[in-house]
């Protein structure tokens, strides 16, 4: 009995540890994908533009055959894998003059933008009215919205990472800006990101469309399909079909390569799990067969007392189920613990997987199924013993 | 019709790896009435235990039939025969066969596990059966914490807890010292005086002397019946006993 419990515990423990480790790694990849932003960018074909954003060039005056429009959003939402798209972020980009300086204005749904660009640290708040703006760090400096940081301070800031508490306080010196003849209020500044966002001005999409005189038009649409193991290629193909005049491209090849590695590891751990459960099956089978032999006389006594064959089968099965449940519980505990303890050696963040209820239930179910399935034959064999022979067994 | 009718029962079996069939019982017929205390005697290998298991609905005879309370036992399906054992028969084995990891009370409750009684009724019934055997203070003892006689009485309590019409005992004194053996025989006798029908396999003449009637069996054939156990049967085994 102890043998069965330990055997199943080792098997289930290994499986649970492997599963929770790969789950952690998948989570980490997912988080990384989140950090990198959108996976898919949709831009109009054949545009010749001089300002660029994210490797996409734009020009103040465009002569595309066809611009992206608000209507394309609903077309994106109509693809087969629409439910795999976690975020659809349409954007309009265009050059604007403020105080005689040229800036790139990005019109977007800013609440989504902030969610997608998790590295953004906004001082102040995100605009939610038509006359409000969000400024990149450099743009804010150039426009005198914030004080230019001295080089020493700058260095220390570069060397400190995002989590540092020693970031300089940003104070808005000026909040009024005139843009295309309209008055705007600066309500937030994004801390230095080291990327192009620093030099940009952000506004709500309708605001940008009005200021740039491009009602209903879009420069690009970013799409997040952040499900792990997403069929990105299929999604890209579907999007291309839905938007024949746009160029749809997937980003983050590197992350996807890493995702593939994890997928391979996940497949390996599944294979290993199957092997472990098979070993568990054989172990329980052998132990139960021995147990039937050892308890031959007991079976004889029970049969003599009027237990039916079906009662004997049930007794052995219930016993197997209980023991397996115990083994599964123990295995899950050991596996979950070792999954958490070994996480630092396998993942970058080092955070172990949270013990998941689904995994626990699956572990218990697997243990009980293996235990019961492998005990079925021994139980039937026990029930078939001839009671008189069984009583004579020594 | 008698309470138990054994008609022309023959049992042969083929031991593993042996070509010819061995005959254990040859056309045995007998009748036992309700309320009787009958001893089944014979040397080892005579077939007496085989006959007991056949009467006990545990081993199908090759030929012949066993009718208990007008039920032709071997006309029943195997599972129904198990039900029959539970309802009609109580077994006391030579080695008592108590389950070592269960207490006296739990051992006695064992036949009740598969009945429809609720837990409390099962417990009460088992307690009454043990009290009847004078073990009212030993409910929670494990078998190895009981004397041989006490173990025997637990085994009898277990056999009787379902209140079966027929009690079958296979050498209940077989591996007990004579004093403990007497104790067990005394218990069986008292039960019989209360109306319990008992069929007991034994090769102990003293045990046989406590019964109403002795069926003697040798080489698979029922030799004789002595209406009175004692020294007037004139047959081999009994003569040896009487010579002592």
What can you see in these coordinates?
The complex is a heterodimer of chains A (394) and B (244). Chain A is α+β, with helices and mostly antiparallel strands. Chain A has two domains: 2-25 and 258-392, no CATH class; 38-251, no CATH class. Chain A has helices at residues 2-36, 70-76, 110-116, 137-142, 151-159, 205-211, 232-242, 253-294, 296-304, 309-346, 357-384, 387-392; strands at 40-44, 51-53, 56-58, 68-69, 87-98, 101-108, 122-124, 132-135, 176-179, 182-190, 200-204, 217-218, 220-224, 246-250. Chain B is an alpha/beta fold and 244 residues long. Chain B has one domain: 3-Layer(aba) Sandwich (Rossmann fold), CATH 3.40.50.300. Helices cover 33% and strands 25% of the residues of chain B. Chain B has a six-stranded mixed beta sheet with strand order 6-7-8-3-9-10, sandwiched between helices. Chain B has a four-stranded antiparallel beta sheet with strand order 2-1-4-5, with helices on one face. In chain B, α4 (119-132) packs across α5 (148-160) and α5 runs parallel beside α6. The longest helix of chain B has 16 residues, at 178-193. Chains A and B meet through α9, α10 and α12 of A and α2 of B.
